[in-house]
Amino acid sequence: MTDQRPQALDKIRICDFTGQLAGAGATKILAAFGAQVIRVEDPVQRGKWDILRGVPPFVGEARGLEAGGAFNNHNAGKLGITLNLRDARAKELLRELIAVSDAVTENFAAGVMERLGFGYEDLRQIREDIVYVSNNGFGATGPYTSFKSWGPIAQAVSGLTFTSGLPDLPPAGWGYSFMDHTGGYYMATAVLMALLHRRRTGEGQWVDLACIEAAGTLNGVATLDATVNQRPMRRQGMPNSNRSQSPRMAPHGIWPTKGHDEWIAIAVRDDHDWKILSEIIGETWSRENRWTHIETRLQDEDELEQLLTTWTANQNRQELAQELIDVGVPAAPVLKPQERIEFDHRTAELWVTVDHTEVGESRVEGLPVRMSETPWSVTRGAACLGEHNQYVFGELLGLGNTEIETLAEEGVI
Amino acid sequence: MTTPSSSSALSGYRVIELASERCALAGKLMADMGAEVIVVEPPEGCRTRSWEPFADDVSDIENSLHWWHYNTSKKSVVLNLETETGGQQFRSLVMTADVVIEAEPLSRLGTLGLDWNQFSEINSELIWTSVTHHGRDGTDPPATDLTLLAEGGPAWSCGYDDHEIPPVRGGGNQAFHTACHYAVPSILAALMWREDSGKGQLIDISLLNSSNATTEFATLWWLNAERQVERQTGRHALPTMTEWTQIQCADGRWFNTGVPPRNKREFQALRSWIEELGLVDQCSAYEILKLGDQFERIGLLELDEDPLAGEVFQAGRDAIEFLGQHLKAYDLFVGLQQRGMACGIVYSPDEMIDDPHFVERGFPEEIFYDTRNASHTHPGAPYRFSKTPWTVTRAPQLGEHQALLEDLA
């Protein structure tokens, strides 16, 4: 049954050049909130500027340009058109599209839009109140403007990689492009803030989003410890991100349990949590007075962790986590992908089935959000290359069928 | 509700935030963009005021750097919601608000008669945002950033090649951040809709699902192919083990080699750099790099099918590792990037803020503390708005803006 409730952004149209996750993840959120997102791809390169187009993991048994599972996930709910911007006629069509769009979004390398003739000043000539959000690693100004970035590079340069790891080991970093997800969140936020401002004042603007700067805000407490207290993060025993420095907690970490690669996270927030845990452990060492207070637990944290590890190694992670939660101590098994997607009923509404024109049904991520009046909706998979040319050039921009056919034959669209 | 000014994106909006580490970032993101964010604290102050580290290492409710970071640009009022007066003042405050953000234990506000249900009819334009463990209709297990990242998925993907070493929690409270990163665009979308409809609504953000929606390939490999990713040192967790991407440079610093060189131009650039440095004789990969002239671009298929392509590709990686043995990480970073190759130095957060590029862009933000007659450097704006720039002031002292309540009386 189709939900008949309105969507928050159903009057908004986005002319969208984004790709990968850092950009496409942003406009996916806007599309889920109801915006009409028209994604523009290059027919000559068959949309492969987006390196996720047509690469594994593939949707089920499907293969080829339209079967990339990551691409399908990040572009669910958007429309797709093709424009060969080497051709003046394509540029004219793009101008017409921008003239009826509220925002233009892109995550090319800095300078690409200017070279195409669609920098911010060009966009303003087309539509004075346009909202333009560019998103790249290092931003549109400064000595590294030409530098290239991907999620792992943004994470390395910003401090996110450094702050994820254990002492005396290389950085563990994030085992995925956390900053592509998060760069997308900041990009969606930027688009919406700028649109809201325009809605209230009539004024458009350009937002220069440098993913690495957005990332550089995400370890603020450690940064302040350095700038205020002159205590650099790079010091003996640091980082140790499985421990908790702010606030101080101990023991606080991820410990082995029975089974292959099975782990439990336990956070002893205070002396009360410790009292409960020490009784559950029920061994001579756990009842020693030396562990009663946070100060001594912190002082001999290495030893305490070693003792705890020996004990957890014989526990079942699911049972122990439940036992601790039941008595009020924060604990959770480190869930594997299958466990959290298939077996954790609390996540069920996040995984939605979409229909893709070529590859059929597949599951993608929805939003971890419920909105009582304007629920999000993700029902359609990513668009095939040029799938919505007829709608956009025909219905929206008013071209006739013959014209559209000619443009396609001549490689303009 | 006042009229917006032209200099600030969210000016004129009043946000009431119930102080909590779980939703503090959402309030900050809105406050730094011009919303009036009033953080409501209990009489003893928000618990995060007692969290280390403290400025000058002096423990005091006004010195917590956690509080300083997460509460910039906000106003503070003290209310004891457990008392009748406090509850009444909270009601008055909410009646003037556009947005409420709270992450209270599930039944607390309902018991006090101060939940969404009590306000939705009398302030129909109100946007109420609850940040919950897994939904307002769920349970409320004791949880921290660590346990959320464990059960929410991120920890499974982070760690080391050696699986005897535990999975790693990424630092910096990212489970809380991610929920806030979903809360803010949701609030903004609700405000957009309210501009037309005049109606508020309830937004329910799941901390657990926020992390679940932020694991990239761990989820995508499972959803599409039912394959499990395995964690790998400093690089993507994937179903199969991949080559290293992290090296240690001559100064001991770690370095992310990024996407390996794949085309003629890049192989040539590496060769000429090695020549410039006078290191040709010491670099065993140098001769093989010459063969790179034959490749406009080495595709993934060629890597499998053409032995020479594989050899040249490996030489590119070896050459970068070799350069790392002879150069400081910073010099390798700038040198490779200037030659068109994507890579990154592994900075600590406080080193990033000192990098000349970000300094020139004005990323480090000096905030004046009139309370200390000193300025301190904070991380700056996550985005640069050309017309409505980010502006930031120091976090409030406990109850600093109590007079606001008198205006309501």
Structure description:
The complex is a heterodimer of chains A (413) and B (409). With 413 residues, chain A is of the alpha/beta class. Chain A is built from 16 helices and 14 strands. Chain A has a 6-stranded parallel beta sheet with strand order 3-2-1-4-5-6. Chain A has a 3-stranded antiparallel beta sheet with strand order 9-10-11, with helices on one face. In chain A, helix 1 (24-32) crosses helix 7 (178-201). The longest helix of chain A is centred in the middle third of the chain and has 24 residues, at 178-201. Chain B has 18 helices and 14 strands. In chain B, strands 3-2-1-4-5-6 form a 6-stranded parallel beta sheet. In chain B, a hairpin with a 4-residue loop joins strand 12 and strand 13 (374-378). The longest helix of chain B is centred in the middle third of the chain and has 24 residues, at 174-197. Strand 14 of chain A pairs antiparallel with strand 6 of chain B, so a sheet runs across the interface.
List keywords for this structure.
A: alpha/beta, 6-stranded parallel beta sheet, 3-stranded antiparallel beta sheet, 15% strand, elongated, B: 409 residues, alpha/beta, 18 helices
SSE layout and pairing:
The complex is a heterodimer of chains A (413) and B (409).
Chain A: E1 13-16, H1 24-32, E2 36-41, H2 69-74, E3 79-82, H3 88-99, E4 103-106, H4 112-116, H5 120-126, E5 131-136, H6 151-158, H7 178-201, E6 205-210, H8 211-216, H9 220-229, E7 244-245, E8 248-249, E9 252-256, E10 263-267, H10 271-281, H11 294-299, H12 301-312, H13 317-326, E11 331-333, H14 337-343, E12 351-356, E13 360-365, E14 369-371, H15 389-396, H16 401-409
Parallel strand pairs in A: 1-2, 1-4, 2-3, 4-5, 5-6
Antiparallel strand pairs in A: 7-8, 9-10, 10-11, 12-13
Helix pairs in contact in A: 1-7
Chain B: E1 14-18, H1 24-31, E2 36-41, H2 65-70, E3 75-78, H3 84-95, E4 99-102, H4 108-111, H5 116-119, E5 127-132, H6 145-151, H7 154-157, H8 174-197, E6 201-206, H9 207-212, H10 217-225, E7 230-232, E8 235-238, E9 246-248, E10 254-256, H11 264-276, H12 286-290, H13 300-305, H14 307-326, H15 329-338, E11 344-345, H16 349-352, H17 356-360, E12 365-369, E13 374-378, E14 384-385, H18 403-408
Parallel strand pairs in B: 1-2, 1-4, 2-3, 4-5, 5-6
Antiparallel strand pairs in B: 7-8, 9-10, 10-11, 12-13
